[in-house]
User: Fold these one by one.
Assistant:
Number 1:
Amino acid sequence: MSNSASIYVIEDDQDIRDSLVEILELEGYAPEGFSNGQEAIESLQCPKSLPEVMLLDLMMPVMGGREFLQAREQLDPSVRSIPVYLLSAVVPYRGPLEGQVAGQMRKPVNIDDLLSVIERHAKGSRPQKSRAA
Amino acid sequence: MTWVSSSATLLRNDTSELSDLMRVEQDLTERKLSEGIKQVLIMNLKSTQTELERSIKARDEFINICSHELKTPVTSLGLQFQVADRQIKSGDPTVYSEARVKRRVDLVNRQLEKLNQLIEDMLDISRVASGRLQLLREGIDPADQLGALGVQLEIEVQEAKFEGDAYRIEQVITNLVTHAMKHEDGKPVHVKVSSAQPDSVILSIRDEGIGIAPSRLKTIFGRFERAISSTNISGLGLGMYLSQQIVQEHGGSIEVSSEVSSGTTFVVKLPKAPAGV
C-alpha cells in the first residue's frame, strides 16, 4: 500500500486532468482523476482511503463544482474536512459555499504555485519523486 | 381627429347684471398629437432599452464563455510545457522517452486544433453579422460527409446528392451531430437523410437523451445561446446559430423539437439546387 498522499483531481477536460495526474505522480503523490463531481462523490461515499486534498474544476458536465460542494455537505464530517482547492477559469468563485473551499487558483495554472498549495494542505508523508515513464 | 379646449366666462355690467358671455376656444390638436407621439416614442425607447440590455447581457455572457473555452486548451498546453520544463531542469531522463514525447505531441496537436476551431467559430459570427458569409456551389453527397465524421451513428441514407457549399454543410452536420452526442446520455444517435421530396433533401438527427426544456428550446438558434445550463456543457453556444444561418443562406430551413428526458430531433430541409449559392 502506498504511503503517498492521495489527491483527487476533479476536472472534465481529459488533457488537463491527465496532465495534472502526471505532474502529481512525478512529484510522488497518488492522484486519482474524476471527470465530474458525481464520480468523485461516489468515490467519497465508499472510499478505500480518503484523499488529503481535492482539486476541483467549477464548470463540468453531469455535476459541476458548485453542485459538488453542495453534495459534499451531505457526506460524513471526515469528508467535509478535506481541503478543496478550486482550479477554474472563472475564479474567484463567490457563492454561498465559498467558505468551504481552502483556496482558489485561476487557470492557466502555474505548477509551482499548485504544488506549494498541495504541499501545504497534504498532511501525509512527504512524497518520494517518481521516475516512471 | 381634433382636440379643443373650451371655456366660458359670464360678463356683468356696472350694475352687476349679466350682460354677456365670453367664450374662449383653443385648438389643442397639435399639442395632443405631440403628447401621443411622445408616449409612443417613450414606449419604443423602453422596448429598445430592454432589448439593448438583453443584448449586452448576452454579449457579456458570451465573452465569459469565450474566456473559459479559450483557457481550457491554454491551460492544457501550459501544463504540458511546465511539466516538461521541470523534468528537464531536474535532469529527469524520462522526459525524452519516445512514449512521453509522443503523448505530448498528440496533446499539443489536439489542443491547437481546439483553439483553431474556437477562433474559426468567432470569425464566422463576425462574417455572418457583416453579411460576408460567402457560399460556394458544388456537388454534395451527405453520405460521404456523415462517413467522414468518424463516429458511431445509426445512419439511414437515401441517394440524396445536392448542390451547396460542402464545407458549410459539413459544418452544419458536425454541429448537429456533436450537439446530439453531447446530449445523448449513452443512447444511440439516429441520422436519416431522405430525398423523398423532389426539390429538397431532408436531414434528420435524433437523439434519445436528456432533451431540452421548452423555455430554452425557444432561444436555441439565438446568437450566444446554449440549450442547457452553461455550467454543464462546454462550447461557445454558436453552433446552432451558425447552423441556422448557413442553412438559411442555402435557402433552406432548420427546425427542432424536443421533450425533456426523451430526446431531441433536428430536421434540416435543403433545396437540391439552392438559389443564390
Number 2:
Amino acid sequence: MDTNSNMEERLWDYVDGISSAHEKSVIEKLLETDSEWRHKYKEILKANILLQESIDLDEPSMRFTQNVMEDIAKYKIAPAASTYINKKIIYGIAAVFLTIIVAMFVYVFANVDWATTGSGGGIPFDISKINYGKIFSSTYVNMFLMLNVMIGLVFLDKYLSVRKKKLLEQDLTNTSI
Amino acid sequence: MTTQPSDNDLIVQVLRGNQQMFAELVKRYQNFVFTIILRYVESREDAEEISQDVFVKAYRSLADFRGDSKFSTWLYTITSTTCITHLRRKKQDVFSLDQENVFARAENLNSGFTANEVEQKSKINMVNSAIALLSPDDAQVITLFYKAEQSLDEIATIMGLETNTVKVRLHRARQRLKEKMEKHFVAELSDLK
C-alpha cells in the first residue's frame, strides 16, 4: 500500500510532468478509481498553481543596469577558452602518459620471474647492486631529461609572456579610464 | 508588431562589439539574479554588489557561452558559483539542508510578523514570506523551478547536483514550504480553501 508521502511524491512528479509514460497511466487510473488520490491530486494542483502565480521577484536599485554597464565598459570580452586551448595538445599529452604507463607495465610484466613469485616475497634482485651511474649516463635518459627541461622552459616562457600581456592590458585600461 | 530579440541574438550583437546590447540582457535577468542572490545574503547592498559581479563575469566570459544551454541557465550557474564564492570569502554561513540551525533561523525570521500584519498579507505575500522562512537551498530550488522556468536538469547544472538530487530537494522544499504556511499562515490558507 502507498504511504501518504509516496503518494504525494508520485503526484508531484505527475503534475511536474516528469513521470514515465507507464507511471502516468498508472496514476491516471488511480485518479479515476481512488477518491483519496483524487483528493490529494486536487490539493497538489492547487498548491502548484499558487506557487506558479505567487512567487515575487525582488528588484535591485533603479541604477543597477547603468552601474553594470559602467562597470563592463572597463573590460573586454575574454577570448573563448576553446580558441586558446588546443585539444590536440591535451590528447597528445594524454597519449604520452598512457604510452609511458603501458610501456612500464609491459616492461615489469616481461621481467617478472613468475616461477619465484610467492615463494617468500621480497625483491628478486639486490638493490644495492644497481649501478645508478650506468643508468644516468645512458644517452636516452639524458635525452629524456633534456627534453623535459626544454618543455619546462617553453611553458615558463609562455606563462611569463601571458602575465606580461595581462599586466600591459590592465595598465592600458587603467590609463584609458 | 515588433518582436523582442532573443537572448542569442543579443549575445551575437554584443560579441560583434555592440556593448550596449548587453544592457538589454541585464534588464531581462537582473531581477532573477538579484532574487536568487537574496536567498543567500540578507543585505540588499551585498546582493546588489554580487549581482553586479555576476553580470560583469558573464560579460567577460560571453565568448565561452556556446549556446548548448539556455543563456538563463548559464547565467544562473555563474550566479550560484559567484554567490557561494562570495559567502566563502566573507566567511559567512552557507546554510544547507543539513544544517540544524536552518529552522531556528526561520523561526527567528518569523518573529517579525505580528498577527495583524499576517492577516493583511495577500496570497502573494504569504507565499513569499513563507519562502523567506526556508533555507536558502530550498528557496533557490523553488525560485528556479517556478519563477525562472528552469527544468530539473537545468537546475542540476546550475547547482552542480544530480538531477535526481534536485528532484528530491524540490519535493522536500515544497513540503517544508507547506509546513511553514500551515504553521504561520493558517488564516490565509483557510481563505484559500
Number 3:
Amino acid sequence: MNMREHTVTIGLEFRCRLATRTRLFSPCAMAMSAAPDSQVDAYTLALPGTLPALNRQAVELAIRLALALGAAIAPVSRWVRRHAFDPSLPKGYQTTQGEAPLARGGTIEVAGRALRLTSIRLAEHAGELRNGSVDFSRAGAPLLELAGESMIMRAAPEEASAYLRALQAIVRATGVADSDMPGALRCDAHVSLWPKGQEGSGARCTVADLGSGPALERAIAAEIQRQAALLDQGLVVASMTPEANHLYLPEPDLPPLRIDAAWIERARAGLPDPLR
Amino acid sequence: MRAAGSPAIMIEVDPTPQSAWTAWQTADAVRRGEVSALAMTQAALARIAAVDPHLHAWTLVDEPGALAAAREIDAARARGASLGPLAGVPTGLKDNFVTAGLETNCGSRILQGWVPQEDGFHAARLRAAGAVILGKLALDEFGMGSSNENTPFAAVRNPWALDFVPGGSSGGSAAAVASHTICFSLGSDSGGSIRQPASLCGIVGLKPTYGRVSRSGLIAFVSTLDQAGPFTRDVRDAALVLGCLAGHDPLDMNTIRAPVPDYLAAVARGQADGLAGLRIGVHHEALALPGLDPAVRACFEAALAVLIAAGAELLDVSLPHFRHAVPTYYALASALATSNLARFDGTRYGLQVTGEDFARSCTAARSQGFGEEVKRRLLLGTHVMQARSGHYERATRVQTLIARDYAAAFERCDLLASPTTRLPGFRLGERVHDPVAMYLSDIFVVGANLAGLPAISVPAGFAPATDPDGADMARPRLPVGLHLVAPLLAEATLLRVAAAHEACTAWHLEVPPEAAR
C-alpha cells in the first residue's frame, strides 16, 4: 500500500443543528430532559391533520451562518419532500430544500486554501433510533446542510479536519449553534481514490456522521487505506454512498421561502463585527 | 319563495318541525329561547336513529357529547352569555376532520381506532360558533372516490333513492343533510367531493377558494387542492357557515390573508336585488361533449333562464385546456396522496401490525389497512412521482394553463355556469369496476380545484335516473345541480348569484322520501 501513488478526492458535507428553542416546522420546544418524547407534539409525531408552520428564527440563524461564510442568499428558496420509509421519518419523508436552496456559494478558508460551498439548505432533523425504538426528542430540529465541492486533497485527512475545525470556529463565533452540544456539527466525507497520472476517476465512498476533527481524520485515513489496498491489488472499488433512489415531491404545505434585503440585514446585525 | 314563518308556530303545527329548519332558523330560535339547544339535539338524535339505518351516513354518533354540548349552550343562554352564530345547530363532520375524543379514521382500516386528543381547526371553529357536533360522517377512503363505495364500512345510500349512490367522497355529509338529520355538515373537496354529492343529494355544497379556509385538522389528501366547505339546505346557511370558517390561520401557511367579506350580505343582495349587469359565462364546448344526460341539460337550461330572468347576461366562453383537467387532476391527486399517506406505517396510530422489523410491519399494515382504490392511487402516484417520468412536473404545468384559461374567461364574465354532473346519479355497484368512468364523473367540477377557485352546487331540478344498457329498471326521480364557479376569493359573487337563483325556484324545498319517514 502506498497512498502517494493515488490522487485523493474528497467532498465534504456538513450538518449544523441550529440553536432554536423550537423545531423547524412546529412551535414545540426541543426536549432537553432525559424523559424521551416528553414534549413531542402532534406535528413531530406526524399525526394526521397536522401541517408545518415555518420557524422564522431558524431561517434567521441560517442566513446568519450563510452570510458569515460569504454565501449568496437566494431571494426565493423552495421546500421539497424527500421520501423514504424509515422509522426515523414519521411523515414518511423529510422536509428539506431541493433544487432551490437557501444559499449558494461561500467558502471555508484554511491556511491559504479554500473549500468552496455549492449549496446551503435548511432541513429537518430525523428521529433517532435507540435500542429499537425511535427517540423524537430532537426530531424536527432545524439543520443547516452545507455541501462543499469535491476537491483533491494532498494531505487528505488533516486538510479535511482543518475545514471542519474552521467551520466549528465560525459556528461558535456566530452563535447559530450550541457548539458544546454533542452532535451540533456533523460531517460526511465522500472519498475517492484513483491512480495518479491515469485517466478516469474513482468510485465515491462515504464515511458518514462524524462529529469531531480527530474522528473525521481517522475515518478518512481508514477509508483511503481501504480503497488504496483494493486498487493496489487491481480490484475495483464499489461505490458506497447513501442510497440516492428517493422519491421527491415539491412540499405542498409550505409556500416558497422569500428572503428580502431587510431580513438579510437583520440577520447580518446578529453577526459579530469581524464577520459582518 | 321560502317559508320564513316563525319557528315557534311551526313547532305547534308539525310534530317534528325542527328537522326542516335551516341552520340560521335554528340558531335564531335558540338565541330567542323559542327552542332549547337540548331539544334540537334530541330531535336530531331521534332522526338519526330513525333514518340512518337506511342510509349509513353516520360512522359515529356521540350522543353523550352532543347532549352535554347542547346543555352548555342552554346554560350559557340562561346566564345571559351571548351565543354564537350557530348556537344549538346540530351538525356533523366528514370523518377526515380531526375531532377531539371522537374516533377519526378517514374511512380506512389503517386509521381505525385512532381517537385524536385535540380538535382540529374546523371542529374548534364550529364548537366556538355554538354548533353541536353529533358525530362523524362517512366518506370514500381518504376521500378517494365519487360514489362513497370505496370503504371497508357500509356504503352510504342516497336519500332520494336507496339503490343509488349519494356521490362522493363526502357522501355521508351530503346524505345526512339531505335526509334532514342535521341542518348542515362539513365536507372536503379536492376534485368535486363537496359539489358532486351535493348535486346528487339535492342540496347546496360550497367549495371555497383554495386557502380561504384552513386545512389544519383536515387529513391531507391532495394538499394543493383540498378545501373544507359546508353542505346546507339553502344558500344563506352556506354563507353563514363559510363566515365561521374563513380567514387566515397561522397553522396553515397556505391560507390567504384577505379580509373576510360579509357573506350574508351578499346573499341578501342576491335575494333582493337580482342580477342586473352580471355576466355569466357558459362553456358550450364542454356541454357538447358526449355523455350529458338530456334531462340534466334541460334542468341546466331552465336554471340559466332563471338567471337571465333575474337580470344576468349570458355569454359563451372558452376554456381551451378543459379536456386535460381530469387526467391532470388524477396525476396530481395520486402523487400527493402517495406522499401524504406515507406516514401510515403502522407504528404510531391506527392499525398496528407487529412484524420482524420495520419494513415487514409497515408492509403488513399498509397491505391490510388500505383498500383497493387507495392502493390503485398509491401505485399510480408512485409512478407519477418518479422524476424520470416527468408526470408530476408536467401536470403542474397543465394546471397552470387551466388556471390561466379561467383567469382569461373571468376577464369577460363574472361567473361560470355548468351542470354539476353529467348524469343524475348512478346505482350502487354500477361503476365500481370501471374506475375511468368513475373518474370522468368529475369532469365539470375538477377545474375549480385545479385553478383554486370557489365553486358551488345548488339544487336545480330533477331528472329520471338513467337506465343501464339492457336493464329494465325503475327510474326514480333524482336531483340535479347547477354548478357555479367564481374568480379567486369571489365567494360573495357566488353566494349572491346562488341566492338569486334560489329566490326564484323551489327545488331546495323538496324533501326526499327518506327524510319524510
Number 4:
Amino acid sequence: MNMSLFAAASIGTGIMMIVAAVAALIVKKLISAIIIVGFVSLSASLLFLLMDAPDVAITEASIGAAISTVIFLWGRGKIGGEQ
Amino acid sequence: MIRTIVGLAIVLVLAAILITVVDDYTVPSALSGVGELYTQTGVEDTGSVNLVTAVVVAYRGLDTLGEVVVLFSASTAVVLILTLIPIGANPTPPSSIVAFTAGILPGAIILFGIYIITHGHLSPGGGFPGGAVVASAFLLVMLGSNTIPDKSKFLSSIESLAGLTFGLLGFWGMFTLGQFLNNLVIPAGSPGRIISAGIIPLISLAIGAKVASELSGIFSSYRKAGGEE
C-alpha cells in the first residue's frame, strides 16, 4: 500500500475513534453510548488490520465489537432500561 | 454533568500522555534480539508458516497455557457469581429481523471460526480468535431465540476436556523429548500443508474448543440471571 495512503487511513480512523469515544460520553441515551462504544471497537479492529495484525483484528472484531456490545445491551436490559 | 466532565478530563489526560509517547516513537529499521532469531529459524524449528502462531503456541507455549488457566479461573468466577443471582423472567422475544438472521448466519460464522482454528499455523488466527468467532455465532443463536435448551453441563465437559488435552500434549513432550510442550513429538512435516507443524494444530483445536465453550457458558448463565425487571 502507498505509504501516504496508509498514513491517511490510519490517522482518519484514529480521529474517527476519538470523536466517537467523546460522543459516547456526551450522548444522553445509554443505548446510543453502547452502540458508539461498539463502533470504537470496530474502528480499532480496522486500525489493527491497517497495521498488518489481522489476527488481532479478528479477535477485536469478534470480542470487542460483537460480544461485549451484546453483553452491555443485555446488562442494560437487566438494570431496567435507561438511567 | 460532573460525570461527563470527569470522563472528558480522563480522556484528555490519556490523550496528552499518548501524544507525548507518539512524539518519541521511531520506527525500528531492523528486528532486534529474539525477534531476529524467530524470523530466521522459526519455520525450520516449528514447521509453522505463521510465525505469530509459532511464537504463541510453540516458543511461548507455557505462557499460552498460563493464559488459558487465567481465562478458566475468570470464567469460573463469573459463572459462580451469576448463578448466585436468582433466575430472572424470560427476556423480551427478538424481533423478526434478528430471529431470521440468527437462523441463517450462525452456520457460516461457525464454519469461518473452524477455518481460523484449523489453519492457525498457516494463515492469521489460531485458537483464541477462532474460538471467539465460534462463540459469537452461539451468541447470535441465543439472541435469535428465547427457548434455547440449557447445555451448560455439556459445555463445561468440553471445556475440561480441551484443557486436559492441552496439558497432556505438554506432558507428552516432557516424557518423550524431555521438554514440556515440545512441539516436535509429531514430525513437523512440510511447512505450508494443513497437517504439519507438529502439535500446533492440536493445541489450536484445544484452545479453540476451550475459548468457545467458556464464552458460550458465560453467555448462557448471563442470559438466565435476573435483573430488576
